[in-house]
Structures are given as structure tokens and as C-alpha cells.
Design goal:
- The structure is a single chain.
- The model is unreliable at 77-85 and 375-386 (pLDDT under 50).
- This protein folds into 4 domains: 4-155, no CATH class; 167-262, no CATH class; 282-482, Nucleotidyltransferase, domain 5, CATH 3.30.420.10; 499-585, no CATH class.
- It contains 24 helices and 18 strands.
- A hairpin with a 2-residue loop joins strand 14 (511-514) and strand 15 (517-520).
């Protein structure tokens, strides 16, 4: 296989035009530091029948990018053996390859190459390990010959090959002391020892503990296998070198996972993400951050401000609203809602299409955000996951790495010059004087907010690498606006209503009660005794409550019902006014009413009803005479009782007179 390829072969290999390949070769010849696809091409000129003036150019295969070299080997059916060398050997080979570039630029055996070799020989240089040395002429010739024949791989020092039969079972000293044991027994002891080392690492033992306990465990296994001697005698032969002990260190991550999941999670493998192609405000990250600056409260106590941060993923712009919490309190959902509404009303920001928020308790208001985003008429189906709200995984700071990185830069580079900056470690706070507490910011909280806004403007105008490719967030935003990007506006009052919930209340005396507070409005006078719908805030505190009918028709906005002192004349004036309002409400209700005699209407309605039919009797139920008499006496009226008693007396008189007549006739 030829170590050089032509311009046409380079074009075909890289899938570019021949003109582009020739341009890359031309630039490489003009500037030795020029890199094509992150590689410095080694070019030589040869005499040929084609080309300009009978001269054509070839590129060294070993100077091509690794992917093109692999593609060349694949196309020609040749596979290059992998480079089996240590990282130190590879670094040394890379150093020599760069050092020999002036020599390799010329064909082998040419006068130009001989001149370049003499120029490098005897020249004092800093070697691959950082030590100064002077390569001899023979050294340069030998290295140049290897690089010409085999490239970088030929320059790398090959690792020493060790024959399997010469490798120790565990350690050479232990092998020498256990020759009486069979090879299979020794291999089993070595296997158990390696496993015990992993067990010790996996359960949190340190290096010294692992080395000692594993050595003692090896001594016990050796004695149990039948080797004669005492534990004290065999222990020195069981001392384990660093290489054997360190071989099981990977198991320590198991212990870290069990006892320190945060550190383990920070070190686990992550995927690479990019914001390329996003429009401004298409995806906005939100988070709460504690800034390490001492600021004085009004009562003189020290506090660190909290920042409600919003980051535009497309432009990397950051907007932060500061909050100075009272002792024992934290950032509330109400603070976040106010900050979010302020974000949407900022003429440089507007309404975001998607939000990426933390899972903290202060973000419970986010359950209302989908409805809030719908207020702006945003269709989120075209975005990733089809959701306007994305929640970060709990305890996963890397999920918001784009925002956490901005916080780190703001803390370490932007806020560090401020007086009162204490750093991230409270136990090692930065102090101006030994033995004294840190000095706070030289001003009140309002002055700190003013200075912070200025420093944040500096951050947003500072150039960044990564997706911005050397532009500042402000430049990226300006480019997007110049290309036609437009913000999305939303009514702040309608947005505020999105963070409320509907409920019902019964109107009592023209008032309603909401969370222990009494609210009143004149329009409620007509709805006393009825149920109405209200909108009450979930997290904010409103001094007004919108009220509507059960069908959704707006009635009015109720305000807190003021309580007047008994001697306050304003109370009498308000009572008189409300009486007039109630009377006006009655007049309004009575304006279209016609007087009706409801009694006569009811009597007439009853008279229209047909008489009920009289059923035939199935017979009378007889009751004992004494029981019937008792029932009649219970139910008789006083007049009936008098008539009954008079009739009873007259009956007795008639009976006595009849009895006298009978006696007189018999005589």
C-alpha cells in the first residue's frame, strides 16, 4: 500500500470536489500551521506528466484525519492493526511526529530531507515529558525512517510482551512460597483473593485497609490449603503490591452509589445536548439560585439573596429577579409567578413556548402553566415531547446543566469582585480580616440589585463558546431579531387569571367569604341567597375577587369589606349608601313586575281541579262499645259535652217518672 495519495484520491476519499482538495493542499503548503479538518496535511510535490508544469502533489496517508485513514483501509481491503501502546508512548510518538514534520514534508532520499534532518539534529528542545534534550543526527534519521514507513504507529514504543507461562499466579513472592501447592489450588486461592479485594473496595474500605485485610485473608486461604507454617510466618509472603490492590478499585463505585448517590450521579455518563436550531424563547430554563453574597436586611441581620433565573436556550441570555427572604423563609410560589409575569411583559423577552423547570416545591405553580401558555395561543405540538412544560428529574442538577453552568460563571467571575462575596463554602468564607465575620455588601438591598443588574448586563454581552461559537448572548439575540424573530405578547391580567382556580360561594347579606376574608361589591345585592362563581388565587394574594353567575356571566369584582368603628361617621355614610344600593336593586327588579292577587290565583287554580271520586264502603269495622264511648268523649267539644250531660240528666228524669207511673198503677 502506498503511503501517499493523489489529489484526486483525496477528493474521492473525503467526498469533496477535486478543486476543494487542491485548495486544502495549497493552503497546507503555504502555511505549515494550517489545519484541514483538525489535521495538518503533509504534502509533497512530484514530477509527473499531468499537473501544471509537470508537477503534481501527493498527501501523506498518515497525516489524514483518523476517519479518512480508516475509510481508506476499508476501501482497499486493508485493516491497520490497533496501536497497542500506553498513553505515555502515544504522547511521545505524537511529539516526535510533530517534531519531524519539516523532514517528512520532503521525499525520502532527497537533498531537502537531508538538509531538514541536519537542521533538527543538535537542536536543544523540550521533549515529550517536558525535559530538555538534544537529539542526535542518528536519532532524527531513525525516527524519520520509522515515521515514513509506518506513520504514528511506527513511532510508538511497543509494550513489552510477557509470555503467559512467566506471569505470576498472584505475586512472585507468594508463588515462590507456595510451590508445594498445585497450580489449580493456587489459581483458586488467587481468584478468591481478587474477589475479596473487590468485596473490601465495594464496602467502603480504604487502600491501606484493603491491602492489609486482603493480605491476611490470603494468608488464611494459603494455610487452609495445606501449606505448613504459622500465620505469622506466612503473612510476609502474602503482602500484596499496589497493582493487585488497585485492580479491584472499580468496585468502590458500588459503595459510593450506596452511600453518596449525589457524587455518584454527578460522575455518571451523560449524553451531549445542543441548542442549535432553536429560536429565541422557544425553550426557557427556570431555576432558583442562592447567591453567595452577604447583604444586610433592614433589621441589620445578614442574608444571601435568592435569584429567580430564566435562561433562553437559543441565545443563552439570562434574566434574574432577586429576592431577599425573611429569616426562616424561602422563595415562594407567589414570587415565582410575579417573576414569570414580569418575564412575559419584558419587551426583550416575551412569552416562552416551552419551559424547563425544577421539581422543587417552589415550582408547584407550574401545574397552571399549560393553561397560561394556551392564553398566548401557542401550539406546542411541533416542539420536542409535544409539551409546553418539562420537569427536570429530581436531584438531577445535570439536567439543567446549561443553567447551572451560567450560575457558576456568574458566581466565580461576575460576583467575585463584590464586597460581601463569601464563596460557595460557608465553612471557608472569604474574609477581609482574620477572626472576624465576613463584611457584607457595602449598601442596602436596592443598591445591590442595581449593581447586580449592571453585572448581569456585562455577562450577557460577554462572548461564549459552545453553541454560540464565540458570540455573546446579546449578539445572538440581535442576530435573531435582525433575521425576523418576533416575541409573543400576552395580557398580564389574563395571565394572572391563569394562576387561579374556580370555586363557588353563597351570597349572604350581599357579601361572600373567601379564605376567612369578607368581600363585597354593590352588584352582589341582587344575588343575596344565591350561589355564585369566583376566581380565587392559588398562590398569590389578591385584594379583589372576580365574581360571575353560575352560567359564567360576570357580575363584578368584589373588594374586602371594610370594618368601621362604631363612632366613625363614615360607617353611617356607607350604610346609607348601601341602603340606597339595595333599594335601587329592588326598584330595578320591580320595574317590569305587574301586581297579581296570588290568593285568588291559588283559589282559582284549586277550583279548576276535578273533585276526587268517592269509593264504595267495604263495611264498617265494629269496636267495643266502651272503647267507642271513650273515643267519643276524647274527641267531643265542650258544647257537645254539656249537651250530652243535659241529655243524660233528662233521660234519668224520664226514667224515674216512668218508674213512678208503673208503681202507681199496681196499687
Amino acid at each position: 500500500m502506498s503511503a501517499w495519495i493523489s489529489t484526486s484520491e483525496l477528493a474521492a476519499l473525503a467526498c469533496i470536489t477535486r478543486q476543494s482538495a487542491h485548495e486544502a493542499i495549497k493552503k497546507s503548503m503555504a502555511n505549515a500551521e494550517y489545519k484541514w479538518r483538525k489535521s495538518r496535511l503533509q504534502v509533497r510535490s512530484i514530477s509527473s506528466q499531468g499537473g501544471r508544469s509537470g508537477v503534481s502533489f501527493e498527501v501523506s496517508l498518515t497525516s489524514l484525519p483518523a476517519d479518512l485513514q480508516a475509510r481508506h483501509y476499508e476501501l482497499h481491503g486493508e485493516v491497520e492493526a490497533p496501536l497497542k501502546a500506553s498513553s505515555k508512548a502515544v504522547d511521545a510518538a505524537s511529539w516526535w511526529y510533530e517534531f519531524l514534520r519539516p523532514v517528512l514534508a520532503h521525499p525520502k532520499g532527497s537533498r531537502e530531507r537531508a538538509t531538514a534532518i541536519k537542521a533538527l539534529a543538535g537542536k536543544r528542545v523540550s521533549g515529550p515529558n517536558g525535559e530538555w534534550f538534544t537529539p542526535s543526527l542518528r536519532d532524527v534519521e531513525r525516527k524519520a525512517s520509522k515515521a515514513t514507513s509506518g506513520g504514528l504507529k511506527a513511532l510508538a514504543r511497543k509494550p513489552r510482551e510477557v509470555k503467559p507461562e512467566s506471569r505470576p499466579v498472584l505475586t512472585r513472592r507468594w508463588d515462590a512460597a507456595t510451590t508445594a501447592l498445585s497450580q489449580d489450588v493456587r489459581r483458586e486461592i488467587a481468584r478468591k483473593t481478587h474477589q475479596h479485594i473487590r468485596n473490601l473496595w465495594g464496602n467502603g474500605a480504604s487502600y491501606g485497609v484493603v491491602q492489609r485485610l486482603a493480605g491476611e485473608h490470603l494468608a488464611d486461604l494459603t494455610l487452609k490449603a495445606g501449606l505448613s507454617g504459622t500465620f505469622t510466618y506466612i503473612l510476609p509472603f502474602c503482602a500484596l503490591p499496589k497493582g493487585v490492590v488497585e485492580a479491584g478499585r472499580s468496585a468502590r463505585r458500588v459503595h459510593q452509589h450506596r452511600t453518596d448517590i449525589k457524587t455518584w450521579d454527578d460522575q455518571r455518563t451523560r449524553v451531549r445536548l445542543t441548542s442549535a436550531g432553536l429560536a429565541p424563547m422557544q425553550l426557557v430554563f427556570g431555576d432558583v439560585h442562592h447567591f453567595d453574597v452577604y447583604v444586610l436586611r433592614e433589621d441589620g441581620s445578614l442574608a444571601t439573596p435568592k435569584g429567580i433565573a430564566w435562561l433562553d436556550a437559543a441565545t443563552r441570555r439570562v434574566k434574574i429577579d432577586l429576592v431577599l427572604c425573611e429569616p426562616g423563609s424561602a422563595v415562594r410560589n407567589a414570587d415565582l409567578i410575579e417573576s414569570f409575569i414580569a418575564l412575559t411583559q419584558d419587551p426583550y423577552w416575551g412569552m416562552p413556548a416551552m419551559l424547563y423547570l425544577d421539581n422543587g416545591s417552589e415550582y408547584r405553580f407550574a401545574e397552571f402553566l399549560p393553561d397560561a401558555l394556551k392564553l398566548a395561543g401557542l401550539d406546542c405540538e411541533g416542539f420536542d415531547r409535544g409539551k409546553p412544560l418539562i420537569r427536570a428529574t429530581a436531584y438531577n442538577a445535570a439536567a439543567k446543566g446549561i443553567l447551572e453552568g451560567s450560575f457558576r460563571v456568574i458566581e466565580q467571575k461576575i460576583l467575585a469582585p463584590l464586597q460581601g462575596y463569601i464563596g460557595g463554602d460557608r465553612m471557608k468564607s472569604r474574609k477581609a480580616n482574620l477572626g472576624k465575620p465576613p463584611d457584607p455588601f457595602n449598601g442596602n438591598f436596592e443598591q445591590f440589585c442595581y449593581d447586580f443588574d449592571g453585572l448581569l448586563t456585562f455577562y450577557n454581552s460577554n462572548r461564549q463558546t459552545g453553541d454560540l461559537k464565540g458570540m455573546s448572548p446579546l449578539q445572538a439575540y440581535t442576530d435573531a431579531v435582525s433575521q425576523g424573530w418576533q416575541r409573543t405578547d400576552v395580557d398580564p391580567l389574563a395571565l394572572m387569571m391563569a394562576f387561579s382556580i374556580e370555586d363557588t360561594r353563597k351570597v349572604v347579606d350581599g357579601k361572600i367569604s373567601v379564605e376567612g376574608r369578607t368581600f363585597y361589591c354593590d352588584e352582589l345585592a341582587r344575588y343575596t341567597g344565591d350561589r355564585v362563581r369566583i376566581h380565587r388565587p392559588k398562590y398569590l394574594s389578591w385584594n379583589a375577587v372576580p365574581i360571575s353567575t353560575m352560567k359564567g356571566v360576570l357580575i363584578g369584582v368584589a373588594h374586602p369589606d371594610e370594618v368601621f368603628h362604631r363612632l366613625d361617621p363614615r360607617g353611617a355614610e356607607e350604610a346609607s349608601r348601601r341602603r340606597g344600593v339595595d333599594q335601587a336593586a329592588i326598584k330595578t327588579e320591580a320595574a317590569d313586575l305587574t301586581p297579581i292577587d296570588v290568593k285568588q290565583e291559588m283559589i282559582a287554580s284549586g277550583a279548576r281541579q276535578p273533585l276526587p271520586p268517592t269509593p264504595a264502603s267495604k263495611g264498617q269495622i265494629s269496636i267495643a262499645s266502651d272503647k267507642a264511648e271513650m273515643g267519643r268523649r276524647i274527641m267531643e267539644s265542650p258544647a257537645d259535652r254539656r249537651d250530652r250531660e243535659r241529655e243524660a240528666k233528662q233521660a234519668k228524669i224520664r226514667e224515674a217518672m216512668a218508674r213512678g207511673k208503673m208503681l202507681g198503677g199496681s196499687l
